[in-house]
Amino acid sequence: MTTFPDILPGEQIALVGPNASGKSRLAASFAGRSGARYIAFRDSYGSYGDRNYFMQQRWNLFTLEDDPPSAGEQLRKLAASCADPQAAQRRLADLTALFGLAEVLDKPLVTLSSGELRKFQLTRVLLDGPSVLVIDNPFLGLDPVARARLSGLLAGLSGTMTLMLVLSREAEIPSFITHVIPVSDGEAGEKVPLEAYLAAVLPPAVIRMRGVTVRFGDRVILDRLDWTVRQGEHWALTGANGSGKSTLLSLICADNPMAYACDIELFGRQRGSGETIWDIKRGIGFVSPELHRAFQTDAPALDIVTSGLFDTEGLYRRPTEEQRACARRWMEEFGIADLAEKPFLRLSGGQQRLCLVARAFVKDPPLYILDEPMHGLDGEQRRRVKTLLDRFCGAPGKTLLMVTHYPEEYPACIDHSLSL
Question: N or C: which end of the chain has fewer CB within 10 A?
Answer without folding.
Answer: N
